[in-house]
Amino acid sequence: MSQIASCPLASDIVKQVQEGADPSQFVDEALQRAKDDENNAIIRIYEESAQAALANVKERIGNGDQLPLAGVPLLIKDNLCYKDHLTTSCSKILEGFVAPYTATAVQKLIDAGAIVIGHTNMDEFAMGSSNETSVNGNVKNPHDPERIPGGSSGGSAASAASGIVPLALGSDTGGSIRQPASLCGCVGFKPTYGHVSRYGLMAFASSLDQIGPFSQSVSDAALCTDVMSGHDPLDSSSSSQQHDATFEAVLAANPDVLKGKKIGYIAEHQDQLTGDIASTFDRCKQLVQEAGAELVPVSLPHEKYAVAVYYIIATGEASSNLSRYDGIHYGFRDDEFEDLTDIYYKTRGEGFGAEVKRRIMLGTYVLSHGYYDAYYKQAMRVRKLMCNDFEAAFKQCDVIMDLVSPSTAFKHGERMDDPIQMYLSDIFTIAANLAGIPAISVPGGKDSSGLPIGIHFQSPQWSEKSLLSTAAACEQLFQA
Amino acid sequence: MAFSIDEVKKIADLARIDFSEAEMEQMSKELDAIVHYVEQLRSVDTEGIEPIAQVTGLVNVVRQDEEKQMFTTQETLSNAPQANEVAFLVPKAVER
């Protein structure tokens, strides 16, 4: 049985509701599809609060409010706080945690008329590339239940790709939106660092984390991001610049947009591509060239160090961020302890899963006395070199086109025994987080087994409009 | 460089995580492999390069120091494994 369906786009729902359609039908249908989900993508469905939110949206529409997301059903990743609802980052250590507030990004979508219908499955604390570290169990890839959906936002990706909802939120620290979008066959967008407030997103690596949407079209991703973005006094790293809305431009984009555009491709990656992935990328390159774009080879000489830099910086930040889970302030506390210190040891030993503990340990090590300069400081220097590489590359091209993942979806269990192999799943996506640039995955084709292949577009910081317009034009070319 | 069991114990103490002997064994092997992998950064020439932690150019973001109620005491304590009306409760930590 095919688990891929389609639901109306968010922009179509909004249009119909604005023309007088009852938003209930869209939300009820999404709730039903969520209940019928066979991929373990959704861990909690919020029927009651969805109906209450719906009543509120209807009232506001009745009062003449123009809501940019009126009646759009939305799923959110389990690391995004939603007031009065369990929010657990799929970790035992947050067992029973009821969020006392709502994340800013989610609140902005709610204020715009979106209806949250549930929380999605994810790798524990967003640490994983296959959605196999969740305390709520594995998520299945909608194209093949024996395969992983990618991670860490596997549940949100599977939900958008299988047509349960038109919009789902994820978070991306090293590829956690784009890689699962690529492997599940939907759109996944990570905006520029600081474009969307991180307030209410459970912190993993604060200098890299960014919230973004999954959708079935680039234009819906633009619509959602327009609503979510902007400065938030509760997140001092959020941008205080004014940013242009992108949706209208993206909706109007067609392949003509590509005429005269300089599209870069990463020279160093070309000999790493094999088989169907290589031929799909060649086809995509040919299509953009035929549409009038100029293909330019660019070099990112330090990108090969991205995984190493990431596993120092991200784990260092995580070891600090996750020190708050102490068995005292919230969540799980192990029952058997002798004294205060013992609560910390037992709660954290019992409450965190293996991958999270591995990363806390690595992060603690690289920040510890005697190793800080050798590892952490050196990683921060190489990070700077990587930023410089992008700066140079974007002098030669407007957008870089690449692959999201070096492989299509692999089988459950295949990489769980080898952390480094698993980490290398993100080899093409991490650099964008380290440089803070926006990046998107757009479906580019399928391999011979019918598994999706995502094409990766990256552009300079704050060039969302150009990036998303290019991606929308390419989306049309690749689908044809 | 070997990531010894003693090293694992030391780091586990810093991170306040309880591990079984078997987990320590496993952790020592895995961390050894990962640390070996990241060692490749040592060979990168970073002479004269300033370390960077913030990539969008923000420096020292400040705001007015204004009093504001974010959460009530009750909300703050609502998720605690053990609390009374006004405080988080922990086992006695200081001996008389």
Describe the structure.
- The complex is a heterodimer of chains A (480) and B (96).
- Chain A has helices at residues 10-18, 23-36, 47-62, 104-111, 154-161, 178-184, 218-228, 247-252, 275-290, 306-321, 340-351, 354-367, 373-396, 419-423, 430-435, 464-479, and strands spanning 42-45, 73-77, 115-120, 167-172, 187-190, 210-215, 262-266, 294-298, 399-403, 439-446, 452-458.
- By secondary structure, chain A is α/β, with parallel strands linked by helices.
- Chain A has a domain at 10-252: Alpha-Beta Complex (Amidase signature (AS) enzymes).
- In chain A, strands 1-3-2-4-6-5-10-11-9-7-8 form an eleven-stranded mixed sheet, with helices on both faces.
- In chain A, helix 9 links the parallel strand 7 and strand 8 (294-298).
- Chain B is mainly α and 96 residues long.
- Chain B has a domain at 1-62: Glu-tRNAGln amidotransferase C subunit, N-terminal domain (Histone, subunit A, Orthogonal Bundle).
- In chain B, 35% of the residues lie in helices and 0% in strands.
- Chains A and B meet through helix 10, helix 11, helix 12 and helix 13 of A and helix 1 and helix 2 of B.
Low-confidence stretches of chain B: none
Looking at the structure, what is the overall shape of chain B? flat
Distance between the termini of chain A: 25 Å
Number of helices of chain A: 16
Strand order of the largest sheet of chain A: 1-3-2-4-6-5-10-11-9-7-8
Number of helices of chain B: 3
Order of helices and strands of chain A: HHEHEHEHEHEEHHEHEHHHHEHHEEH
In CATH terms, what is the architecture of the domain at 10-252 in chain A? Alpha-Beta Complex
Q: Which structural class fits the helix and strand makeup of chain A? A: alpha/beta
- Note the run of SSEs of chain B as H and E: HHH
What's the CATH architecture of the domain at 1-62 in chain B?
Answer: Orthogonal Bundle
Shape of chain A: globular
Number of DSSP strands of chain B? 0
Helicity range of chain A: 25-40%
Unreliable spans of chain A: none
Mean pLDDT reading of chain B: 93
> And the CATH topology of the domain at 10-252 in chain A?
Amidase signature (AS) enzymes
CATH hierarchy, class of the domain at 1-62 in chain B: Mainly Alpha
Termini gap of chain B: 45 Å
Beta content of chain B = under 5%
